[in-house]
Design brief:
Elements: E1 2-5, E2 8-11, H1 14-17, H2 22-26, E3 30-34, H3 42-48, E4 50-54, H4 68-79, E5 98-101, H5 108-121, H6 125-133, H7 143-155, H8 165-178, H9 183-186, E6 206-211, E7 217-220, E8 240-244, E9 251-256, E10 263-265, H10 273-276, E11 282-286, E12 293-298, E13 302-303, E14 309-310, E15 313-317, E16 321-326, H11 328-339
Parallel strand pairs: 2-5, 3-4, 3-5
Antiparallel strand pairs: 1-2, 6-7, 6-16, 8-9, 10-15, 11-12, 12-15, 13-14
Helix pairs in contact: 4-5, 5-6, 5-7
Length: about 350
């Protein structure tokens, strides 16, 4: 059992098996268990401590990032019951003490503690891991959890990162490991996005994608999933389209990716729901008005003309749609009208 910082402690399950008196020895009043199943001596600990449990496995498939907000809130309730102020120059003293534990004290509990240090003290992943490792040398979060910590670092400034498009895209990609058809995740309530089309992108520029044939509105830039074209350096293999001889690794040709993108990758939209719920590995999207082919999807991923792989790939084809820029004053007018319920 190790004290990481102030009233923040971490351990394996062993101290609970040994019936350690955490209150007497460490002034700990709260316990956060990060493992499935009952904890040792559960009756005693549930009676004498405020206890919270996150039942997750230590494996390559577990989505642990979804529990970061509630774990942070639980730890805050102990260390900073009056609220944490990140703008204060003088470090705030911890008001209480909390124990975070898993089975071995090396992966799940470490991930939760690192996420808390990152959010509370503005640390990046490497510094958070170092802060824990200097007190507990045998830490080893699995690669899946490390990937999620890096994602969390990117999403830290988002007010509600669980509804952010970057997180939702990662969630789709992660879910393909569990279900190659993606159907398990997209059947969840409210997963499909309603594209209202009245929010600008923060730069005064707003794009609508419309069917080339009938001008039906299909998506807006609010729903675009960004993808950066791969670097043209030799180290980024996605920038090259390599053709090999049949049944051989011999390279026949090698071409640089295009300087334009042939696809608009988007979040799963409400009008796509019927097609995506078929449980197929891949399929096509037709315009909901004129039935023209406008895009498609592939849960195992597809490659844009720029060379970038997107997994999964839910897209509209640039040669099947028109990208129309909507001016900022029009967006404002639409927003006002929407607030007055004048838009159907």
């Amino acid at each position: 059992m190790e004290r990481i910082l102030g009233g923040l402690y971490i351990s394996s399950i062993q101290p609970l098996l040994d019936k350690v008196d955490f209150k007497k020895n460490y002034n700990i009043t709260h316990i956060l268990s990060v493992l499935p199943g009952p904890i040792p001596n559960e009756d005693e600990y549930l009676k004498n401590y405020v206890h919270k449990q996150i039942e997750v496995e230590d494996d390559d498939l577990t989505n642990i990032i979804q529990f970061f907000p509630e774990c942070n809130k639980f730890i805050d309730s102990v260390l900073f019951p009056q609220g944490f102020n990140a703008k204060e120059k003088k470090p705030q003293k911890h008001a209480g003490a909390v124990l975070i534990h898993c089975a071995q004290g090396c992966s799940r509990s470490v991930t939760i503690v690192c996420a808390y240090l990152m959010r509370t003290y503005g640390l990046d992943v490497e510094k958070a891991l170092f802060a824990v490792k200097r007190k507990k040398a045998d830490i080893s979060p699995n690669d899946n959890f490390l990937e999620q910590l890096k994602l969390y670092e990117f999403l830290l400034n988002k007010d509600d990162f669980l509804n952010d498009k970057i997180y939702r895209q990662w969630l789709l990609m992660h879910n393909v490991k569990l279900d190659p058809t993606g159907s398990q995740l997209i059947q969840e309530k409210d997963f499909f996005k309603n594209d209202t089309g009245i929010q600008e992108n923060g730069m005064g520029k707003f794009i609508e994608l419309r069917c080339k044939r009938c001008r039906q509105r299909l998506a807006s830039s609010n729903t675009f999933v960004p993808h950066d074209p791969p670097s043209s350096s030799s180290e980024d293999k996605q920038s090259l389209f390599i053709r090999k001889a049949p049944h051989s690794n011999r390279i026949i040709s090698m071409e640089q990716g295009a300087n334009f993108c042939s696809h608009y990758y988007v979040e799963p939209l409400r009008w796509m729901q019927e097609e995506l719920l078929k449980g197929e590995l891949e399929g096509k999207f037709k315009c909901l008005k004129c039935d023209a082919k406008v895009g498609g999807y592939c849960w195992q991923g597809s490659r844009c003309s720029c060379g970038r792989w997107m997994i999964p790939a839910i897209y509209l084809q640039s040669n099947k749609v028109d990208a129309c820029e909507v001016k900022k004053d029009i967006i404002h007018s639409v927003r006002v009208n929407s607030n007055n319920d004048s838009i159907s």
